[in-house]
């Protein structure tokens, strides 16, 4: 049974976006085995980093906290953690990125604008909630603010949003953001799109994968919520593209087949953001004080610790994280760690002993310096 009323092929004629990145080869299509692809990605990432740094910077980047929620330790710190806590906490955040095109047009992109209320019905989290007493759930889940409330505080009108971007569509329900083609029983009608001018930038491979889910994928997607989402709400891309000055989407397959990563150039250098890992120290585990990470990395000869709730293609995900690690500049606050901003970042909580991060970013803040005369 198909999950969508339309196939990935149905969106082939929709408008394209951005400038393709020729420097980066699609990892999932690079010849050779995963080891050969790993060697290639190190070279390609270094070349793209030099190229990308010359594209300029966006006008502003603002970070907005959405929700802190529980997540299995065995998923977030794949095989490496020795914490006694079965769950850790992650904080999902939205980035608001603004820039101007060369012709002067302004653009606004929302990265990870999760509809937290509807995201709860993701099969995995829905089952977890049903097994968790309310008094415990209230201690483990904290909502910080909605997407629309954050935009109002920034004085950004919903109609000014051009693009919605997610590293992948796990847990996401887009119906309230982009509208539907039919009545939605659970929403009490046919919602008008909150973002009437916005398009969802997504890898064509993920649309293809979602059209008929594999059992490994089913706990993490809400296929029913896409049945009435119009195909024209999507801007499907293939591979990596530069969207604007200092703003790029890089394809990073593995966590899901069509995973993608946001890359931005800022006043402190290049930042990378995805959910491929849940903490900056997962890129440099030798500096981690989390129980088990440094030892596990050393003993197993693995230089990164994956976020592995979904193991669609683990070797490719590892290679994608190496790509991200190569692109990200060192953190100015502590150069042992990189400017990797997890879209869902490990967050310390007294309820989860042994999972307090050694280092946290919590925010990306960037504003382009204005020229003076």
UniProtKB/TrEMBL annotation:
Domain of life, source organism: Bacteria
Residues folding into a coiled coil are none
Q: Where is this region: Disordered?
A: 351-373
Q: Which GO terms describe its molecular function?
A: hydrolase activity; metal ion binding
Q: Which cofactor does it need?
A: Zn(2+)
| Record's compositionally biased regions (Polar residues) | 351-362
Q: Which UniProt keywords apply?
A: Hydrolase, Metal-binding, Zinc
Which InterPro entries does the record associate with it? Answer: MBL_superfamily_lactonases (IPR051013), RibonucZ/Hydroxyglut_hydro (IPR036866)
Query: SUPFAM superfamilies under this entry?
Result: Metallo-hydrolase/oxidoreductase
Family the UniProt entry places it in = Belongs to the metallo-beta-lactamase superfamily.
For this entry, the protein name equals Metallo-beta-lactamase domain-containing protein
Species whose genome carries this gene: Streptomyces violaceusniger (strain Tu 4113)
């Amino acid at each position: 049974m198909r999950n969508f009323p339309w196939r990935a092929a149905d969106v082939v004629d929709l408008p394209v976006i951005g400038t393709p990145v020729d420097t980066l080869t699609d990892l999932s299509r690079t010849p050779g085995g995963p080891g050969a692809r790993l060697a290639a990605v190190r070279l390609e990432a270094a070349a793209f980093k030099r190229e990308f740094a010359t594209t300029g910077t966006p006008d502003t980047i603002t970070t907005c906290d959405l929700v802190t929620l529980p997540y299995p330790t065995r998923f977030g710190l794949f095989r490496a953690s020795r914490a006694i806590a079965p769950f850790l906490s992650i904080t999902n955040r939205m980035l608001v990125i603004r820039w101007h095109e060369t012709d002067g047009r302004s653009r606004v992109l929302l990265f990870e604008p999760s509809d937290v209320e509807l995201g709860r019905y993701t099969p995995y989290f829905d089952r977890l909630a049903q097994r968790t007493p309310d008094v415990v759930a209230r201690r483990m889940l904290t909502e910080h603010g909605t997407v629309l409330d954050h935009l109002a505080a920034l004085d950004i009108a919903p109609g000014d949003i051009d693009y919605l971007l997610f590293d992948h569509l796990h847990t996401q329900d887009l119906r309230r953001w982009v509208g539907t083609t039919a009545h939605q029983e659970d929403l009490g009608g046919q919602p008008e799109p909150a973002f009437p001018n916005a398009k969802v930038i997504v890898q064509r491979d993920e649309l293809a994968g979602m059209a008929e889910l594999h059992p490994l994928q089913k706990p993490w997607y809400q296929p029913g919520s896409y049945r009435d989402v119009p195909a024209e709400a999507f801007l499907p891309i293939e591979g990596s593209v530069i969207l604007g000055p200092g703003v790029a989407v890089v394809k990073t397959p593995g966590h899901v087949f069509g995973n993608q990563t946001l890359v931005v150039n800022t006043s402190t250098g290049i930042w990378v953001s995805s959910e491929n890992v849940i903490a900056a120290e997962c890129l440099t585990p030798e500096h981690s004080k989390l129980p088990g990470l440094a030892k596990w990395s050393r003993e197993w000869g693995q230089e990164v610790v994956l976020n592995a709730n979904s193991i669609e293609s683990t070797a490719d995900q590892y290679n994608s994280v190496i790509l991200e690690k190569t692109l990200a500049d060192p953190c100015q606050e502590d150069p042992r760690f990189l400017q990797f901003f997890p879209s869902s970042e490990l967050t310390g909580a007294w309820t989860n002993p042994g999972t307090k991060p050694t280092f946290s970013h919590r925010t990306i803040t960037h504003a382009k310096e204005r020229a003076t005369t």
